[in-house]
Amino acid sequence: MKPGRGMQFFLLGSLLLIPRAVLAAGEIAIPTLQVGVGATTDPGQVSVAIQVLLLLTVLALAPSILVLMTSFTRLVIVFHFLRQAVGTQTMPPNQVLVGLSLFLTFFIMYPVFNRINHEAFQPYVAKEIGQQEALKRALEPMREFMFRQTSEKDLAMFISMSKTARPKTMADIPTHVLIPSFIISELKTAFQIGFLIYIPFLMLDMVVASVLLSMGMMMLPPVMISLPFKLILFVMADGWHLLVGSLMQSF
Predict the structure, then answer these.
(1) How far apart are CA 103 and CA 117, in angstroms?
(2) Residue in 206, 196, 210 with CA at minimum distance from that of residue 230
(3) CB atoms within 10 A of CB 29
(4) Nearest CA among 19, 38, 37 for reference residue 29
(5) 8: how many CB neighbours lie within 10 A of its CB?
(6) Is the separation of the CB atoms in 247 and 74 below 8 Å?
(7) What backbone torsions phi and psi does residue 46 show, to the nearest 5 degrees?
(8) What are phi and psi of 70, to 5 degrees?
(9) Among 32, 50, 54, 69, which one is most buried in terms of CB atoms within 10 A?
(10) For residue 146, which of 167, 106, 117, 173 has the smallest C-alpha distance?
């Protein structure tokens, strides 16, 4: 064995023996974590455990709640339709489109989040209301936002499929029926906006393709020629200002 290799084994063995010697001397106390299931006769402990489990479940579903119960779905789909219509492939990249959609979602949902903070979160932190009441108050602003963006046709379809009684008011509509209705309505609206975005760029592609065909330049891809013209058209029309402004007003 080489001298250098023997020194390495000696140092490694010393490092493994030092923590054991220190623990034997009782100089350092390392905390331990124990997880177990035990019996209890106190219903309060069971209730607290269930509440913690429900809280962890809500935190795990937080990304889905942010994506599907807010304006994020419509925004990100429209921006992807815009990128496909212009024909810039991966520009802007997905990270930019998702980030822009996320910050616009916070801007649009700020009144709703602010109301949830004042009516549900702050009273709950101050121990003025309980957990169930806080969840009920937090859900009301979200329901009002989703009701404004949900079509009656989609609501009627999910109410019929859920086999529930015919609601007399919006308060009678369960949340588990409202959420899928809202998602379907958002997808429908996003595709409608995407279709309107495609029309001017599609017309420009057809004009360029017709000109190239008339000139006999059939081997040259029309997309390659039309892309600069589409970019100029979008920039000169201040497309981002018009698109984002229209999306904000749609909510």
Answers:
(1) 19
(2) 206
(3) 7
(4) 19
(5) 11
(6) yes
(7) -65, -40
(8) -130, -170
(9) 69
(10) 173
Q: Closest by alpha carbon to 191, among 102, 89, 78, 67? A: 78
Give the pLDDT of residue 28: 54
| DSSP calls for 29-73 | ------------S-HHHHHHHHHHHHHHHHHHTHHHHHHHSSTHH
Q: How far is CA 10 from CA 7, 13, 23, 24, in A?
A: 5, 5, 21, 21
- Which residue carries 């509509």 as its tokens? 173
Query: pLDDT means per 10 residues in the chain (251 residues)?
Result: 52 49 50 50 52 65 74 89 83 86 89 86 79 82 87 85 78 83 90 88 81 74 76 82 85 78
Q: Are 212 and 220 in contact (CB under 8 A)?
A: yes
How far is the first Cα of the chain from the last one, in angstroms, to the nearest whole number? 75
The answer to whether 154 touches 181, Cβ cutoff 8 Å, is yes
How far apart (Å, rounded) are the C-alpha atoms in residues 206 and 195? 16
